[in-house]
Amino acid sequence: MPRLCALCSAQRPILKRPKTGQQICKTCFFHVFETEVHNTITEAKLFQPGDRVAIGASGGKDSTVLAHVMKMLNDRYNYGLELFLLSIDEGITGYRDDSLETVKQNQKEYDLPLKILSYNELYGWTMDSIVEAVGRKNNCTFCGVFRRQALDRGAAMLGVDHIVTGHNADDVAETVLMNIMRGDIARLGRCTAICTQGEDTIKRSKPFKYTYEKEIVMYAYFKRLTYFSTECIYSPDAYRGHARSFLKLLEAARPSAIIDIIHSGEACEVGEEATKELKERKICKRCGYIASNDLCKACTLLEGLERGMANAGITDRGRKQLEASGPTPDGLRTIPFFQMNTDTPLDSASSTPIPGQTVDARIPAVVHVTAG
Amino acid sequence: MSTNCGNPITETDAMMPRRCKFDRSKMCIKCKENRGNIVVRHAVYCKVCFVLMLNQKFKRSLEPTINPVPDGPRKKSLSPLGNLVIAFSGGLGSTVLLDLVHRGYISSRKPRQDGDISTSRKDPKNEMVWKEVRVCYVEVCGAFPGMRDRTDDVRRVVESYDGFEFVPMRVEDAFDERWWESVGGRPVEGQLGVDVMNEDLILSPSSNPTSPLSTLHIYLSSLPAPTAIPSTLQTLTRLLLLHTSRSTNSSHLVLGTCLTSLSISLISLVAQGGGFNIKEEVQEEWCLGKVVVKEDKGKEGRTVRIVRPLKDIGMKECEMYAWWSDLEVVGQETWPGAPQGIGGITKDFIIGLEKDYPSTVSTIARTCGKLAPKDVPAGICILCNRPSQGQVKAWKDRISIRSLSSSPLPSTSPAQPSLAPYLCYMCHTTLTSKSSKKPNSAVSTEKGDGVESKVEVPVPQWVGARITAMGREVMKDELKEFLLVDEDD
């Protein structure tokens, strides 16, 4: 007798779910995949009707599937959300320019407004020019810090309440391991939270927190979704790469390892004593974004780039060198001042893709300071 | 490790600059007289100062845990509430531990005169701290046919020291009612079995009584993934040691886990879903069948404190100590299947990572030391006896749909007792998480239609005893208005 789907017991199974080990048919796979994401959203009470939600879209598999599923669930379950696509153009020739074409194609398919914000507009630097200045070592630090701010700033320009990102279960598990291995207590405490929101940041959440990367790929494959699948041309973050290869080995030995690590991360927290050691959150004196010191990480990195001391935001020695070299000179490029809730968000229509689109005129892309 | 294919001749940043192994000079940083023999994290030590330093680290880690109220001042009198058990595997860590305990607390001291150890105020430098010291060894060769029994080798090493009592055990003792009764366990009426094909882990009376060794084979071969075997053996070994410690009135059980092994076991624990027990992996208070609360600490005979006195000493330091002290390391047999285990994968990864990132091992231990469980324990896991968060099945059902029924009926009825509610996440996952590869022959019980049939697996003695006791507790609860005297107390 032929084997039958473990869920419906009617059709032939075509895949084995890594998360449960069950062999299921395509129809049941679509059902469980979408319903699990819906359950994650509703149990965590991520949205309120009328929320304006930006989907962080890179053109990769995770964000493509997220855009598809968010649009579908919003229609199916009447979430009442106003959805946007928000893309960040890091300025990586041969990588991001191609992936943004995929995002633009998705924008047409899902009929969602799209906002693209580039590093060049916001910081006056592209990743190509940063790599030219700093080399390939540590360039992921610049990209990661700049992207986080860029997403918040893009969201503020769109006037959205919430950003959803395509971080999946593999990403969360990898981050838990990485934070333990490099002793990043502050990040370890918050990396398993499905939703993060500080007083001065836009709410961010991960509806794919419990969704395996393999299942996202399977979903995109069976639904024939268009996504861009090339890795970044600049070397991936070496440390994350170690954590990722370790996780893959664990997953191969025991597929539940990914979800087991997330469970571990959820089950523990930073102890009372260690909490006291954590730095208080401040506001960057220069750009108004959240910071741990007087200047936020992005402003420090940008100043280092501008002054030809790229290590200023990376190592303690670099920071000391920057401080020793005197006050910030006049005329240095800085990041525009950050305002979380803009009173007059961009009109949806005006944020649709326009060739050669520029940043909203209300927030100048690059401003010049006259004092240090 | 670089991901680039940089040419070091043309690209100056393609190679990391080679760092000097020591910071200033080749002279010992302690005595400043002798030429150094070893570099420990950029500090140079001569042989004499290294041994002294290692002893200090060992004592600094162990002594604050000896008195009933832990972390008290070290210089005060050391008065443990009971005896000491040293867990000895024959590996490097436990060999070094055995030697350090013998040098520090036995060979240099007189036997304890005072019978009442709890009220003793004798000078700890002259008298033995623990009245009796036992060395326990658990032989696991029974688990793998063809594996060599090393009990005699271990006995020879232990008996080369005076003042230790050797207690050999076998891992199959976990299923042996004679062993269970010898450690003071209440006899279990009939063997219980659990159905590992059902995630609720339904319990039923086990039909075929077999020898402890056969029962162990059935248990291991029924596990759903090869990765579960090393974890299971570790749990069984830990519980055999704990029950032996309790039955010998021991207040302390010391393990030879060094800093490197501790970091590996912490990451391995996290990878298996045991994040709730991170604290216990570093130091643990164990009491039979209950969560240890503050009030239990310091009460004689109630708790066993598990201590890892080598937790600040790296594997390289242990190796050097063993070499310079001319210690015989029996070594551990490689467990067939161990490389596929989560612990084996983690070990390979951490050892490899340490080459590029030398501070990894200490960072992991330090980071995990700052973590605490998020919730108050809901109880004790019936299998591993560690605090459990509870609601394991509910969490798993919440994050993954395993049935198309919108309101799934509970798969167990009152007539079908289930083990799942009494297990921690890690033990439940060990018993239910399937391998991505084809199941092994013992678990391959699928009928032609793909439906899996029941596989009945016997449970360890302490699990059976606890379930029997819980049954009595339920009955007692119903009869409590009529009972005048509690026979169980």
Task: Summarize the structure in words.
The complex is a heterodimer of chains A (about 375) and B (about 500). Chain A has 14 helices and 13 strands. Chain A has two domains: about 50-230 and about 235-270, Rossmann fold (3-Layer(aba) Sandwich); about 280-340, no CATH class. In chain A, helix 2 links the parallel strand 3 (about 50-55) and strand 4 (about 80-90). Chain A is α/β, with parallel strands linked by helices and about 375 residues long. In chain A, strands 5-4-3-6-8-7 form a six-stranded mixed β-sheet, with helices on both faces. Chain B is of the alpha/beta class. Among the domains of chain B are: about 20-55, no CATH class; about 65-190 and about 210-375, HUPs (Rossmann fold). Chain B is about 35% helix and about 10% strand. Chain B has 14 helices and 14 strands. Chain B has a six-stranded mixed β-sheet with strand order 5-4-3-8-10-9, sandwiched between helices. A three-stranded antiparallel β-sheet of chain B has the order 7-6-14. In chain B, a hairpin with a 2-residue loop joins strand 1 and strand 2. Residues about 440-445 of chain B have low confidence and may be disordered. Classes of the chains: A alpha/beta (about 375), B alpha/beta (about 500). At the A-B interface, helix 1, helix 7, helix 10, helix 11 and strand 9 of A face helix 7, helix 10, helix 11, strand 11 and helix 12 of B. Strand 9 (about 270) of chain A pairs antiparallel with strand 11 (about 370-375) of chain B, so a sheet runs across the interface.
The mean pLDDT of chain B is: 83
The geometry of chain A reads as globular
The CATH topology name of the domain at 66-188 and 212-375 in chain B reads: Rossmann fold
Q: Ranges of chain B with pLDDT <50 over ≥5 residues?
A: 440-445
Range of helix content of chain B:
25-40%
Helix content of chain A: 40-55%
CATH superfamily of the domain at 66-188 and 212-375 in chain B: HUPs
DSSP helix count of chain A?
A: 14
How many E strands of chain A? Answer: 13
